[in-house]
Specification:
With 94 residues, this protein is α+β, with helices and mostly antiparallel strands. It has 3 helices and 4 strands.
Length: 94
């Protein structure tokens, strides 16, 4: 393998690692919040959450996602990407 290719792969890998570390540092004081009026109850965010923070609940307002374990939320944004209804946002931890 060419040295230039190896160096390029190494740089991309380091940028990926540092990008993830920066995102975690930046969002360390944030938690996911569900805007119930916008949530359609599609469960895409619940399925995408690798930390099992979200769950689907049914109440008098209908079926929607809810934050079950806010302490486990890493504010990674994976659920934000999956929500097509803009029903999720990151807010400061209280």
């Amino acid at each position: 393998m060419n040295v230039t290719v190896c160096i390029s792969i190494g740089i991309v890998f380091l940028l990926w690692i540092f990008g993830n570390l920066y995102r975690r540092w930046k969002n360390r004081n944030k938690v996911i919040y569900v805007i119930e009026s916008k949530c359609a109850g599609c469960r895409r965010c619940v399925q995408r959450c690798s930390h099992h923070v979200l769950e689907t609940v049914e109440d008098e307002t209908g079926i929607h996602a809810a934050v079950k374990y806010p302490g486990k939320c890493a504010a990674c944004g994976n659920c934000l990407v999956k929500c097509k209804f803009n029903a999720l946002k990151l807010v400061e931890r209280s």
